[in-house]
Specification:
mainly alpha, two-stranded antiparallel sheet, 61% helix
Length: 133
């Protein structure tokens, strides 16, 4: 069965498109994972814009009482990179498709939700209900 590659969202910038394409070219994603990927791609674009603004602006700006303070864009840039890392971790992608195949062959769960279910079953055993995997 052939699957069609999801279309790259039109509103993504260069960094977001590059991330989106790299992931969908390598992995088959469920709908919920695609939503996370789109959000990660948008965040990658935000990171690029913030990094460009930081690079072109001063590191110190004048605070409300005239003191020198760190440019607030530095904090925003750092927070955006942290968010991007969090979104990518939530996707739970293996390093490569070969790693995913190896995990599947070894009986290890392949998606983030599958890993979460396996971890819950390992901890709680038969108390995990409502999950038929």
């Amino acid at each position: 069965m052939t699957t069609t590659r999801p279309r790259t969202p039109a509103n993504l910038g260069a960094d977001g498109r590059r991330l989106f394409r790299a992931v969908v070219d390598e992995f088959d994603l469920r709908a919920d994972e695609l939503l996370l990927l789109v959000e990660a791609a948008r965040t990658a674009d935000d990171c690029a814009r913030l990094d460009a603004a930081v690079a072109s602006g001063p590191l110190l700006v004048t605070g409300s009482t005239g003191q020198d303070v760190a440019n607030p864009l530095l904090r925003e840039s750092r927070q955006s990179r942290a968010l991007l890392g969090s979104l990518l971790r939530q996707l739970g992608l293996p390093d490569t498709a070969e790693d995913a195949d190896r995990d599947h062959a070894a009986g290890r769960p392949s998606s983030a939700s599958d890993r979460a279910i396996a971890a819950a079953r390992a901890r709680w055993g038969s108390a995990v209900v409502g999950v038929n995997r």
